[in-house]
């Protein structure tokens, strides 16, 4: 499994635990649902700034999202 896939899976699991839809997260990020889907699925590269924003939205630290990825 590639490193970014692990991060994307954590983000997806946290999103589902918080009962957020892709549209909800897209709204928080100021992007559309399709653009968010592309981030979560790996079709678009996840930038550091976006990772930090997602960590804040999901109420975890960026280091938690990156934990186990090296």
From TrEMBL:
CDD domains registered for this protein in UniProt: HTH_XRE
Pfam families per the UniProt record, alphabetical: HTH_3 (PF01381)
Domain HTH cro/C1-type residue range list: 11-65
Superkingdom of the organism of origin: Bacteria
Database matches in SUPFAM superfamilies: lambda repressor-like DNA-binding domains
Keywords for the protein's UniProt record, in alphabetical order: DNA-binding
Protein name: Helix-turn-helix transcriptional regulator
């Amino acid at each position: 499994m590639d490193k970014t896939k692990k991060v994307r899976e954590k983000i997806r699991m946290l999103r589902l635990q918080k009962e957020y839809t892709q549209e909800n997260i897209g709204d928080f990020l100021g992007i559309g649902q399709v653009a968010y889907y592309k981030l979560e699925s790996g079709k678009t590269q996840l930038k550091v700034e976006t990772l930090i924003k997602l960590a804040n939205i999901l109420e975890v630290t960026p280091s938690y999202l990156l934990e186990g990825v090296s």
